[in-house]
Every structure is written in C-alpha cells, then in structure tokens.
Amino acid sequence: MIAAARTGAIPHAVSPGLWTLAWKRLKSDHVGMVSLAIVAAFIVLMILSAAGLIAGDWAKETGVNYAPPSFLGADIEAAVQKAAVTPAAGTAGEPASESEPRTTGVDPAAGAVPEPKDGTQPADATAAESGGDAGKSVDPLADVMADIKAGAAREAAKGGAVVAQARAATLPLGGDKWGRDVLKKTIKGSQTSIFVGLAAAAVAVFLGTVFGALAGYYGRWVDDFFNWFYSVFSSIPYLLLILAVAAVLQQKGILTIILILGLTGWTGTFRLIRGEYLKHKAREYVQAADAIGASHTRRIFVHIFPNVSHVVLVQLSIYAVGFIKAEVILSFLGFGVPVDVVSWGSMLNEAQNELILGKWWQLASAGTAMALLVTAFSLFTDALRDALDPKLKGRAGT
Amino acid sequence: MNDAMDPLVRVRNLEVSFRIDRDVVFEAVKRVSFDIPQDTTVALVGESGSGKSVTALALLGLLPPENSIIGADSEVLFGGGNVLRRSAPELRAMRGADISMIFQEPMTSLNPVFTVGFQLIEVLRLHMGMGPGQARKRAIELLDEVGIPDAEFKINAYPSQMSGGQQQRVMIAMAIACEPKLLIADEPTTALDVTIQKQILDLIAALQKKRRMSVLFITHDLAVVGEIADYVVVMLNGEIREQGPAQQVFENPQDAYTQALLKCRPQLDRRPMRLPVIDDYMDGRTVGSRDMSERRRGVDPDDAIVLEVNGLGKDFYSREGLFGKRKFEAVKNVSFRLPKGKTLGLVGESGSGKTTVGLTLMRLHEASAGEAIFEGRDLLAMSPKDFMAYKRRIQIIFQNPYASLNPRFIVGEILTEPMQLHGIGGSAQERTELAFELLHKVGLPEASFYKYPHEFSGGQRQRIAIARCLTMKPDILICDESVSALDVSVQAQVLNLLQDLQDEYRLSYIFISHDLAVVKYISDQIMVMNEGEIVEIADADDIYRNPRQPYTQRLLASIPKGWQGPRTA
Prior knowledge:
The complex is a heterodimer. Chain A has 2 domains: 17-54 and 184-397, MetI-like fold (Orthogonal Bundle); 70-170, no CATH class. Helix content of chain A is 71%, strand content 0%. Chain A has helices at residues 2-9, 18-27, 30-50, 74-89, 99-110, 122-129, 134-138, 142-159, 182-218, 220-235, 238-249, 254-264, 267-281, 284-291, 296-333, 344-356, 361-388, 390-397. Chain B has 4 domains: 1-98 and 182-254, Rossmann fold, CATH 3.40.50; 105-179, no CATH class; 266-295, no CATH class; 305-557, Rossmann fold (3-Layer(aba) Sandwich). In chain B, a hairpin with a 5-residue loop joins strand 1 and strand 2. In chain B, helix 5 crosses helix 7 and helix 17 runs parallel beside helix 18 (488-505). The longest helix of chain B has 18 residues, at 194-211. At the A-B interface, helix 1, helix 14 and helix 15 of A face helix 15 and helix 16 of B.
C-alpha cells in the first residue's frame, strides 16, 4: 500500500536500501562472484534438466558396460574393459561384438522378470549384472522395472532402432555398469540433489524462522513450549531421527527426503532466530512500533522480520549446502531416492561396488560435481554474510 | 603552567585517514598540531566526528593498522621520539607506563569475571614488576587514593558489585598505577550521573595536581571543560578551530564555532525565546539581531489539565531461588497533573524511575498501581482495544534516534505507517502529502521521504521521530532523554523545534532528562525523582532558585558551572 503510494505518486529514485548496498559489496568480492556464477550455473543446469531439455535420456544405455571416459584413450579402454567384464559375464566383451554376449547374458534373468515383447536390454541388464544380489532384483522392484521396460518398449516401437543402435566404446565421462552416460547421470543427479537441498533448506528455515520468531517475540510460555520442543528434538541422535521420520512416512521418494531433512533440520535456525527476536523486541524501534499502535503480528513480520532476514538468508544457504550433503549421505545409506531416480548419492552408492573393479569415473564425476557445488555454495555464503554484515568482516579478519 | 619547560607531547601535522571502501577514504584528522605542556590539563573539545578520539588513539599508537593511513610528515613527539614510528613492543612498553587512558564506559572497560583487585594487581605486576604481596598492598593504596571507601574489603569485589562511579574510580586507579606522565581521559564522565560526574572531575583534578602529570581530557561538554582545563583545543571535522589557554577561549573566543558552542548550550541563568544554533554563528549573523527576550515559564493555577496521574506505581519482579520472587519498586506512588500546552520536566539520576514513568503512561509497561485520567477516562484501566483509540493521543520520542527508527523502512513508510494504522488521511495519496507536509515542518527536505534512516545524522533522525509522532496529532508528547544523545549544536536545533511545535499546536510535553540545564530551559514545571519517588515538584524557576529538598540541592550543586574565571592554583 505504502509501496504503491511511493512508486505511484513520486517519480523519484528511492535511496539504495540494505539489499542494494549488500549487492554492491558482493559485486566487489571476486571469490563471492565466481562462486555465485558456479552456483547459478548449477541451478540453470538443474532447471534445464527438470524441464527435460538436457539429460532427459540419462537412463538410455548409450555406451558399453563401464565405458571409460573418452579422454582415457582406446588402448587402455580395451584392457580395462576385458578385466572388468570377465568376472561379471564370463565372456570377454569386445566392443565390436558387444551386442551378442549381452543377449546371452540376459537369459538367466528372463524368467524372473516379465519380458517385453522385443526383449530390449535395459532392465534385463540390470538384473543380469547384479546377479549376485538376485533377491533384491526380484521382488520389490518388479513394478518399477516393468515401468522402465514398458517405457523402453514404447520408445523402441517409436524409433525401432534401439537394438540396432551401436553402443559407444567410450563416453565423455565414462559409463556406468549398464553403459549409461555418467555425464548425463551427473547432470540428472544434480537436479535431484540440488532440488532436494534447496527445498529441504526452505522447509527447515521456514519452520525454524516461524518457531524462533514466535518463541523469541512472545517469550514466556510460548518460548518455554518451543524450547521444550527444541530440546526434545535436539536430544535425539540425528540419524536416528531421520530413520524415525523415514519409518513414519513409509515411502521412498524425493518428497519424503525433503520432509525428513526439513522436519529434522529446523533447530539451528530456530535457536538463531529466537535469539535475534529476543534482541530486537527490546529495541526502541519495536517499542516505537508498539507506541504507534502496530499489532503483534505486524511487529513480528513487518517490523522485526526485515531486520533479521539477512540471518535467514545466510541460514538458507548454509542449510542448502548441508542438505545437499545430507541427501548424498542418505542415498548412500539407502534411505534416499528410489532406484528409478538418480542423485549424486545414489551414484556414489553405486560407485562403492564399481571402485573395487577399478571403475572410478562415476565416483569422480559425482564427487567432483558435489565438491564443486558445495565449495562454491559455502564460499558464496561467506561472501553473502560479509556483504550483509560488513562489520563482521573486519572483526573476523583481525 | 610552565611555559619555560619543553612540552610533554608535541603533535605536529597529524593527519589520519580511514579506508572505508576500496576507493573511499575518510579524512578523520586533518593536519592537526598542538602541544601538551607538562603538569597541565589540556581539553580536546569537539562534537561527534570531530576527530578528537582518533587524535587520542594516535597518541597511544592504537589506531587500527589495517585501515588507517597516517600522513607522511605527521609527528607525535613524546619521550624523545615519534610515537607514530615506534614498533609494537616499544608502544606496549609506553602504554600504561608513560601514557595511560581511561574510557567512557567503565562498565565495559573492566573484565566482569575478575575482581577489581586482580585486574589492578595484574597491571602492577606486569608494568612495575612487583611481587604479589607488594602489588596487593599498592593496589589497596591506589584504591584508597581514588576514593574507594573500605579499599581493604573492596579489593575483592567484582565490577558488578560496584556502582558506575566506583568502577570509573577503579579505572582511574589502574590508569595511574604506573605513574604515567600523561593520562588520556576520553569522555570519562559522559556515562555517569551528574553528582558522580562532579566527584570524578574533582578526583582527576586532584590527582593531576598531586602527581604533577598532564591530562588530555576529551569531551564534548564545554561546561566540564570550564571546570577542569588549563588549555583548550576546539576541533571540528578533523581540524582545529581554536586553541589557547582556557581563560582566553572562554572569555574571548575568536572562532565563530567556539562562540557558537559556548552559546548553544542552554544556560541556567537565561532562557531566550529561541536557543542560538551553530549556523547563526557560522554564517556570521550577529548575536544582537536575534530576538533575545526571555521566555516566561511556569504553570498558572487556571491552566486546563490534560493528564492527571494519581498514585502511579510500577513493580518489577526478579526470580529468587526456586519459587521465590523479589519485588523491586521502580516507581512508587507518583502523582502529578500535566497542564495543556505546558512542559513538565522530569529529572533524576539513573535508576530514579523517570523513564519507567514515561513508558508506563504509554502502556509500554503495565502499571502496577494508580490511574492516569485523560479526558475523564483512566488510560491504565482500559482494555487494549479501547486504548487503541487513545494510543495516538499520547506519543513518545525515544532517547536514541539511531535505534528508534526501523532501519529497513524508508522515511516515507515510517511516517505513513502510523496514519495508516489509525486511519488518518483518507487515501494513500493524502497520507503521502501529509508526510511531506510534516517533513517540511520539522525542517527536512522533501527528498528525505525516499531515504533510509541510516542516511541521516542523529539530529535529523530525531526530527524524523518527532515527525512520526506528529502524524498522529497527539495531545501529549513524552520526550524520553530525546536530546541527550545529540551534539550540543543539534540539541539546540531540536529543542527549538520542540518549542515551536508546542507554540503552534499547544502540545503538552513530559520532558524526561538527566541534563538539568536542558530541563531548566524547556520546562514550566519540574518534578525531581529519586529511587522511584517524587522528591519535589515545583515551577522550574522556583526549583532552581530555591530548592527545598536536600536531594534537589545536591543535584543542582553538581551541575558543571562552566568557566567561572581563572582558578587559583
């Protein structure tokens, strides 16, 4: 209303506010700007991938099994290929004659899983290669596999060239067990990981902010109640809490992970925001707001909140970093994303078996991508904090 | 003064700048030169931002090295060398032993988790190389010397167990422990009550004479300077405007700024219609051209009463033990009547409950007892809903203009918000126009509407706070130390503004302050409070001319008198 009056009535430049000034300071921070660019690039990647513009076909098996990264060269590749495939399929997989041994390899599993009419490989391969833990491949995933197969079948019916399509001997960043492109997997995985990180951070910071604001502002029994709640939450070991929430929610999925992380992660923000509100509610400008007749809600959200919003923003980015890592850990432990979804965590989970075979590239891509994003995000958070609270910078430096 | 002797400290062409940004440099001190003779008190006087504290820090070599730039030919000659070129270990040896410093806030200068004895003994052992027993004995002597009663016992006290005045005495004891040649006192009495201020000033003066050391006394208050200084240096914006012996500066000031400083401060014996402001002097307008007639103050018996307070009380409770509560009566049985269009001054030392009275009347604190009758209704007994209608009628201007404006709102929002909440002005357009009108009224340019509070100086911010109150067209305005945080020159402007507004709108003020000269200037009636109770209530002139209660007499006797002619040394 006021804003409308301001912008409507007066053709006047509004003075730079805190955000404008902070942005100015941030712009002069080279490290901050580079990390912001990296984070922004990742987010653009995430959006493009979510929109299906890139890496939509990540599940397609475009390369040979464990196709090595292109930059490793063909000679090494052959040796590696031999060594790798021998224990798994029992036949030496020459890149040229690759399609034949594959089909034979599929057979044993064919009985266990319903077979689409034209017998394309994707799911069969999964079953065949993970022959060691056959129990896993039989039961709980049957539906999922059927879906995947049906999808593949449809695609095959459309294009008709899937079987005939030659598999690449090398892929830009290598291939996984089923010959899926690791580059595409990493991109698709970043979509899951970043989205989970940001969304969970938003949930956690939102809860922490609201609880903290109410507890800090009202004090007394409201404060006691939230503090009690907080104490109970923080007295339970973190992983146990996550497992408990996972058990209650009863299903795997991205939404579940977001809820797990969001519902368990609000405590830090709560403590911080509560402290800020305790401090601010005694400030004269809040008393002045009381004196002019502003209601409690108005004081909490219109008067005080803008003054603590920079804390919230910094918390949000700290949490995003933490939750990206947490998602990876959860997926690594097997509580994360379902098998038909790829995330950095599930890639690392796969990588632990591959590493024994000397296939390091999946680990390297997922690890590098994550390290890059997390480092950039952390540096950006630091720069953001400095920009929003320039006094802190000098103090930390001395 | 010993002019024959070499001065103790010689400051030559001191130039200090601070790097604020990559390309912004702020010149804090611009080529300043002055001497501190031996066995003399030199006062460095200036308003905030004049560079007086930076100068003192330069003397001690305490400027932050990472962002301060010292001019190439700057010199601070002390003890046969340039302090500005000394190494860190040399400086450390010099500080404490040769030059020591006392700060404004004794409460934050002492470490709260150690006893004062421990902190004092530490200084003695570090700098004087004394043994534990000897240092303890010396510490007791020092505490005794600075006037701490029962020093033997108080040496084991923690800072929190002492009053502000005693803490400042301990700081002084620490500063003189190593028998420095120069004591730098940076606003040592600003945070203290007026009666304590008097004692500390007397103490510093006595120590200076006894120990024959030099004192560099930094302050904004010329009245204090008049009491203590032999030699005065007046600074403005990093430059020296005038320097000379106290007598010359006070009796025959040459510089317009010095003249203005001397005249802007309300004086106890005069009450002009308007206080002169710095600009009057800086622009060269002559003193005679202004209206110098005296304003008549006082309450007539037939004045209409706008607010009647009866038996107001406010208790605070602190928890004691598991279930116990301890009652602290901040305000006890306070009754007064506020006439329309007049000012009631409320004076008292810290802890006297004067601010609590203001906040309780605003219902920012809940009253424990009593009533406040406004237009026939008791404000304190109303439901919050009923009170909403009356809220705008009583408004408050807080002490600290840096804290009382929301930093995230532009001035326009600050001004239109109360109107919106109380439904004043029909439309947003109308409210905006009203805001412009009020900005004009308090003497701020229209462009202020779009600015954030941090872009204004303290005085301008206080004007914004006043304008915010005026948006609600109040009947009563409570000024809670509203000019105490402001520089002398700005103080005069704000006081004039308040006076103009009272003349125009017939506002009633409750003017709360510890500054007796200001209260005397603005008030018709004065209420003196001590420990939550009213000591005395009378017309302003009567109370100053003829204080009845011993407490009032003591309070009035402590007011710094300024220059009273040359002291006999």
